Amino acid sequence: MMNWEKLLTSGRFDLRDGHSAIETQNRSEIERDYDRIIFSSPFRNLQDKTQVFPLPEHDFVHTRLTHSLEVSSVGRSLGKAVGEFLLNKYPDLQSKGISSSDIGAIVAAASLAHDIGNPPFGHAGEEAISDFFKHHPYGFVWQTYVSQQEWSDLCNFEGNAQGFRMLVSKENGLKLTYPTLAAFTKYPRPSQVFEKDPKRRSHKKYGFFVDQKEEFEMLSEKLGLEKSSTECFLRHPLAFLVEAADDICYSIIDLEDGCTLGLVSFEESVSLLGEILGDKFQPEKLNKYNSDAQKLAVLRAMAIGQLIGESVAAFCKEEENILSGDFDQALTDSIPAASALHKISKLSVQKIYRSKPVLEKEAAGFQVLEGLLEVFSKALNHKFYQTELFSGKDRSILRLLPEDFPMEGWDSSTNPYPLLRELIDFISGMTDKYALSLYRKVKGIALPGV
């Protein structure tokens, strides 16, 4: 069974020096994690990455950035409340200098970073990258050069694994503390496993690419993360709180955005949020607010508070089963409001996620990302692997890659997986607007300055 003292081991993940770096200044180590994330370029780029809706001109809807900030706020509340429970149950933690605020800060930092690996155009972007390698001639052409596990990574792009890669990068990683990195990793397994258990929530997706497997194993050793099978690890317990914070926010906030844009009626939204509150819901008290937006904001705050309380109670009830690995499901699936959340999810699929603006955005995302991957993948393939086809057009395209893109050491005898990972880093890191702008330029649809 895992134990909390080991799970909260201090130290930073720093591959540049080959060992962890421990710093002591005025801020706590976990507070430093939060600051490093919020000031990083990948986090700032989330301001122009789609959450669900394309950004309208007048009505406010959430971007990946505002969503991440709200998930972090909810995560802090969850973590601090659970921290108070843990310190009462395990007094030795306090003697080690651990406070409930530290645990709240770990969950807040991991929650802040939870979408940092997501590509442009939301989940459609993930599918577009995967489909390029599965179906496009200049994606599929790489299969013969890479291993089966590497091919599985390429054909199943996963934003969670991309985020882990970004956070632990030897050159550009943020050197976060071990507990924050582990709490960030909701799916501690590689892309291809032979013992995937559909009943285990942590097996639903994957959390690291094959070339970060060594880094995750190092992290698991530091924190004493046990395995649920030969290839899959148990989640760090705080990852359940990060997941709950995300589940709470996207369920409630997507509904609010859908109502703001007129896709869901105000009355239906009030009814669904009221169902979460149960006996606490007093609709007559909403009459003192002048606008529907104010009424909805009050209900949203109350619903989030209710879900936080129920999720904390569920975690505390299952804490020992989480440590042993016997509990492996979403906390929000085991709370009293679970049925109400399920109704919101079902309605969101019908009226929000399949609405015309969302579907149009997804269609554009497929076109843009496939187009960018095509021109760059084709040029790289011609330069290093089918050299007889290399053209002036390919040369011009490759000059658009970042200055630090690794252009040396590749030929038909070398495995191109690291090269393709760098290309995916470049494209998945783009904002929606930059991806669209570059696509238009490389396709000759628009010229610079025109």
Report on this model:
This protein is mainly α. The protein has two domains: 1-119 and 157-354, Hypothetical protein af1432 (Orthogonal Bundle), CATH 1.10.3210; 362-442, no CATH class. Helices cover 57% and strands 0% of the residues. The protein has helices spanning 4-7, 29-38, 41-44, 64-89, 92-95, 100-112, 122-135, 137-140, 148-155, 159-168, 178-184, 213-223, 238-260, 266-277, 292-324, 338-353, 356-384, 392-398, 417-428, 432-442. Helix 2 runs parallel beside helix 6 (100-112), helix 4 (64-89) packs antiparallel against helix 6 and helix 17 (356-384) packs across helix 20. The radius of gyration is 23 Å and the shape is globular. The termini are far apart. The model is unreliable at 18-23 (pLDDT under 50).
Concise summary:
This protein is mainly α and about 450 residues long.
